[in-house]
Amino acid sequence: MTTTATTPRDATTGGPMVLVEHVARTYGSGRTAVHALRDVSLEVQPGELVALVGRSGSGKTTLLNAIGGLDRPDEGRVVVAGHEVSALDERGLVRLRRDVVSFVFQTFGLVPVLTAAENVGVPLRMRRTPVPEREARVALLLDLVGLGDHARQRPGQMSGGQQQRVAIARALATSPRLLVADEPTGQLDSETGRQVMALLRAVVEAEGMTAIVSTHDPVMVALADRTIRLADGRLLDG
Predict the structure, then answer these.
(1) What pTM value is reported for the model?
(2) How far apart are CA 180 and CA 104, in angstroms?
């Protein structure tokens, strides 16, 4: 059963886009248990670009996975755009990831045999978007990420930075309300990483969406509206 928030704390009614309340997540048990998240509570407002910062193992990826519905917390709740993610069944989670949340990872995840345009269009094909509408949206997004002239190239013909731009365009294809990016510049050199970070800032504003980006990059921190810091699964500030 699809579960939605029962309170008015909904992005459509002026509330937060993301609400995390007392979330905990533990992997394993006993003496080998890893407490990835410990009583984490935070809010992200519509239109915010938030940088999620912390050392490796601090809980950043676990928190992003809980927000995006890729993992389920042991305690607490997560609400995204009015949907209580932590209580959704598998069908509800599929709809959430199809219609509300999109992801960008440091491993680009592009289909090698498809062109840049075809990769960007995959989510729209899954939605059965009419061909003229799909082609127009793909062209718009490739222009937005600066790859309008590379539409027919395949991933193997592109640099790492270009592939990440295609991945960002693909994540934007269905006009998500929330973009979740986990170390999106982790495989890029510093200059390309800076370009991708600036692009993320630009597309968030152009598309009018909310974004949470985990990063070690000080450039992303500087571009963000706010920084949330994690250490040993606990929230330090935000």
Answers:
(1) 0.86
(2) 6
